[in-house]
Amino acid sequence: MRVLQFGKYAFAGKGGIERHVEVLSRGLAAAGVDVTVLVYDSSGGLQRGEIDGVRIEPIRVRLHLGSQAIASGLRHRVLELAEQAPFDIVHQHWPDPGAHWAATRMAGDAVQVATWHSDIVRQRVRGSLYRAFARRFMRSPDALICPTGLRMCGEQGQFIAPQALRRFIPFGLETEAFELTPALHDEALAIRRQLGGRKVVFALGRHVYYKSFDALIRAMVGLDGVLCLGGEGPLTPQLRKLAQALRAPVVFAGPIPETQLPAYFHASDVFCLSSAQSAETFGFVQAEAMASGKPVVNTWLHNGVNELAPDGLCACTVPAGDVAALACAIRRLFDDEALAARLGARGRERVQEFFTVKRMVADTVALYSELLERRRQMKA
Question: What CATH number is given for 2-172+356-379 in this structure?
Fold first, then answer.
């Protein structure tokens, strides 16, 4: 089975879509699937090669329109690869209008699959243009994978792919990396010492508007603990100024290498997902915190964020953007160690049962096989 994945900045960038594509592609390759991933390359320095059995095909990006990469050579390279050896499955990851265009203009009869990650939210005009353009010029996928059952896909996904084409496959996590070993325990203790031995709230993500890290920084004022904020982004300077102005107990950890993330989760007492916009559709960093046995404070977004980490089961959920409620939930978990331990243990069990890479890969391969069999029967 030959699969082509459109991976945005996978194996080079560390956004949510990219991390998912990497984990899925590695899992598929380990299961014996022939996987090629097309990745955007803004630097021009990426080389074709193979990582863990996955072939990487970089496509030079010349400019960006908003957050959308414009890669003029994308469709040409797709056609070249398909001519060399036809693909059985072409798998897109939305939102990525450029990939949608290139994938659905391919010649041949490859099965088209897409995973819906989120709508185009902030660029409302561009989102409307994409929806109109897709309806007229782009075909629907043969299946649309949605990682959450609470809200199977967003407005744009519903418009492009009808209900009958949608399939629920939760995202998966390699839980083994978060098992507490003696070495990981020592790393976590070292981080806690660097943070002054205080109670630790950990938060992680790109410093962009919908993460609402400003609200989390405000919530830390007056709390007997410290916020360790990982990641960086366009709002990093403003967040630093805010923390300094409020004298909030915040340590900016910057980009954290993948190999060090488990230590940061285990060094924390609470993980907080403060996002206040529906652009946050799943918040998979919650799963990493849960796999580490940590309680979660999240916000009510009525989507996959709350399905992954339900209120009262493994999370304390508060209204989005409510600074006082964030502070109250964090203080509650700081003060009630029994509650924190109970939520953490239940979260770990939930991830190990429902959100593993093994399950995600098996369900994805089963879907691929089902669609290919259906295609063969239609031809017979």
Answer: 3.40.50.2000
> Is there a contact between 309 and 297 (Cβ–Cβ < 8 Å)?
no
The torsion angles phi and psi of 286, rounded to 5 degrees, stand at: -60, -40
| Average confidence (pLDDT) over 75-89 | 90
The predicted model scores a pTM of 0.83
Q: 310-348, pLDDT tens digit by residue? A: 999 999 999 999 999 999 999 999 999 999 999 999 999
Asked if 286 and 309 count as a contact pair (C-beta separation under 8 A), the reply is yes
Q: Domain 175-354, CATH 3.40.47.10 — does that match?
A: no
- Give the residue from 338, 280, 284 showing the smallest Cα distance to 308: 284
Instruction: Kindly list the strands in the beta sheet with 143-146, ordered across the sheet, starting from the edge strand earlier in the chain.
Output: 49-51, 54-60, 34-41, 2-6, 89-94, 111-116, 143-146, 166-168
Instruction: Centre a 10 Å sphere on the Cβ of residue 61 and count the other Cβ atoms it contains.
Output: 21
Q: Are strands 200-204 and 166-168 parallel, antiparallel or unpaired?
A: unpaired
Asked whether 296 and 275 are in contact (CB, 8 A), the reply is no
List where CATH 3.40.50.2000 sits in the chain: 2-172+356-379, 175-354
